[in-house]
Write a structure and sequence with these properties.
Length: about 190
């Protein structure tokens, strides 16, 4: 089934093709929609063509506590205290080959002291063993350097191939303050 579709996301144009099929449309233009279905007619996923790839129309989110295995318990009298680089924490994106990374974010409570331009934490997003994106947390989204801090990246919008698995880690730069209960979030789209 094909037809004209009146509304598409703001970065695409109007009146693009809308297809419901078990196979990818052979002819496509930026902003075209494809609702993938199995032969019985059940819908699997909804996609949008970006000019190079079919991207899932839904933005998916995965969150993870970013700790080391020895620091998931009571450490120094504080639950969830992180005072050194974390281990790699796997992010499960299902059985996909690539993702379109939309954004990264991280939040934590500063135990004592302040973040600064030379003493900060870095959230690393890895594909396999390679860091492909990072978020420096020198100051929070609301300019906070102590207390509860949350930092969100600007739009990333890059496709990354799956090289084994995706991981997150937090690393120290300079001598930043210890942090409590760091949590991160990855927003992404599936790529086909």
């Amino acid at each position: 089934m094909s037809g004209s579709f009146g509304f598409t996301p703001s970065n695409f144009q109007f009146n693009k093709r809308y297809t419901v099929s078990s196979v990818q449309p052979a002819s496509r233009s930026v902003g075209d929609y494809w609702d993938e279905q199995i032969d019985s007619g059940s819908k699997i996923l909804q996609w949008i063509w970006d000019g190079n790839n079919w991207l899932s129309r839904d933005i998916l989110q995965r969150s993870a506590g970013v700790m080391t295995s020895g620091q998931n318990i009571l450490v120094g009298g504080v639950i969830g205290l992180l005072s050194s680089n974390s281990e790699d924490i796997p992010i499960d994106t299902g059985n996909v080959r690539s993702i379109y990374l939309v954004s990264l974010s991280c939040g934590f409570k500063v135990n004592s002291g302040n973040l600064s331009t030379s003493h900060y934490w870095r959230l690393n997003f890895k594909s396999g063993a390679s860091v492909v994106q990072s978020l420096d947390i020198k100051v929070g989204d609301n300019n906070e350097t102590t207390g509860n801090v949350r930092k969100t990246s600007s739009a990333i919008n890059i496709v990354y191939a799956h090289n084994g698995r995706y991981n997150l880690s937090l690393t120290k730069h300079g001598n930043p303050p210890d942090i409590i209960s760091p949590t991160s979030m990855v927003e992404y789209r599936l790529v086909r």
